[in-house]
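Tokens for chain A. Residues wanted.
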């Protein structure tokens, strides 16, 4: 391919709290009757004053720390002004020049690539617009829900790295109890900024295309591939793709133009006059830092580096927190931790039934074999071969995998656990 992707990612993550960001309205809005969780604050009525949600801010700090961000000790909120029906106040309370976290990074633990985090800031969500039977309906239950925005630098050059980052960030939010990150409920949304440049070029492209509100990692991948095709066709013609905001047409990843891309000046930011500057104490940040340590990245490194577990098994243990929690309680004794972990991943149902020590005994018992005579072995192999005509033909035609089928047939005839290598040798001898 003659072009290279240059992608920066914005991620919106709804915080798991009981109440909204600046008022006491119920935050568990999904699936509820429209417009029942509203008040003068989240409806922007005259004279209503916002009060920041302390728990939401603390969770934003924890996420920023888990992404290795520096923390601004003095933060403030700003008004981001724009006019759209689902933004009932005509502005969104967000953060501009003093976000909670900045200058961080995350290491993709499968590829090893380091992605720079530009900022992590706290804001509020908007309402929801619904088109139904030719009518434009508005539900403000979601208006004011705590929302964390994570902005990366344009460090991505492949769709695989973007999707890996998205998966790790989702796991991190779930591990730390920051968000359920349920994408079907809109609790995690992606907005990639996608550009192309010629291979070998190191300068950033002089345009970028933002795709709005993607709530699926698989669709995110499709969008990136679709935009690569669309933009590369334009560049091949000598045309520069327009700097614009686009939206999804359908789940195939195809997009359509929505509007010219805004700059920060278009939003006419100014400090939120109703919320004073907030000071984050060193004591608070240090306390929350301890809560930010149990991340998927740290787990994966512990599994692979300290416990010497195979990478593919460590990946499963990292993605399945229940299994990962279990393996951290294990004393494998005479068994290697890698062997224990591999057996556990292949027999996950054991976790709910047995203790770590009981599973260790099961693994040891599974390794024991029963001594059988040569006559018993020869007889069992002979019977198995007679019952496996198709597999024998496949094996003799060069399909080595057919040996495993015959091996299973021998074990059924023997009805005891025998030395596998010894059984395989006898099968090959008789077939030769």
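Reply:
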């Amino acid at each position: 391919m003659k072009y290279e992707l240059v992608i920066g990612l914005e991620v919106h993550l709804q915080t798991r709290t009981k109440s909204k960001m600046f008022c006491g309205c119920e935050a568990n809005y999904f699936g509820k009757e429209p417009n029942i969780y509203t008040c003068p604050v989240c409806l922007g009525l005259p004279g209503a004053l916002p009060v920041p949600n302390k728990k939401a801010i603390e969770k934003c700090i924890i996420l920023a720390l888990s992404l290795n961000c520096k923390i601004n000790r003095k933060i403030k909120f700003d008004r981001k002004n724009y006019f759209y029906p689902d933004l009932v106040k005509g502005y969104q309370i967000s953060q501009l020049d003093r976000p909670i976290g900045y200058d961080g990074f995350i290491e993709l633990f499968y590829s090893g690539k380091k992605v720079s985090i530009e900022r992590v800031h706290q804001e509020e969500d908007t309402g929801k617009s619904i088109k139904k039977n030719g009518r434009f309906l508005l539900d403000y239950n979601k208006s004011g829900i705590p929302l964390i925005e994570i902005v990366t630098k344009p460090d991505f050059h492949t769709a695989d790295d973007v999707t890996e980052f998205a998966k790790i960030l989702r796991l991190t939010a779930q591990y730390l109890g920051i968000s359920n990150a349920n994408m079907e409920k809109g609790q995690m949304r992606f907005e990639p900024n996608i550009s192309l440049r010629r291979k070998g070029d190191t300068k950033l492209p002089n345009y970028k295309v933002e795709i709005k509100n993607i709530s699926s990692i698989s669709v995110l991948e499709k969008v990136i591939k679709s935009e690569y095709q669309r933009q590369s066709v334009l560049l091949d013609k000598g045309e520069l793709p327009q700097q614009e905001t686009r939206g999804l047409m359908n789940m195939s990843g195809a997009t359509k133009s929505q509007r010219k891309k805004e700059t920060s000046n278009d939003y006419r930011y100014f400090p939120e006059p109703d919320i004073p500057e907030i000071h984050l104490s060193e004591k608070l940040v240090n306390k929350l830092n301890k809560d930010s340590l149990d991340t998927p990245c740290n787990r994966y490194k512990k599994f692979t580096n300290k416990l010497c577990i195979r990478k593919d098994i460590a990946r499963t243990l990292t993605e399945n927190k229940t299994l990962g929690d279990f393996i951290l309680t294990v004393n494998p004794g005479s068994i290697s931790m890698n062997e224990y972990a591999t057996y556990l991943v292949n027999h996950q149902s054991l976790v709910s039934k047995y203790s770590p020590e009981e599973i260790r005994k099961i693994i040891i018992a599974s390794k024991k074999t029963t001594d059988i005579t040569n006559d018993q072995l020869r007889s069992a192999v002979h019977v198995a071969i007679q019952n496996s005509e198709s597999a024998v033909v496949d094996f003799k035609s060069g399909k080595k995998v057919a040996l495993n089928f015959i091996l299973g047939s021998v074990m059924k005839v023997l009805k005891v656990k025998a030395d596998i290598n010894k059984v395989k040798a006898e099968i090959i001898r008789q077939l030769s």
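Residues 374-431 form a domain with the Arc Repressor Mutant, subunit A fold (CATH 1.10.10). The chain has a mean pLDDT of 93.
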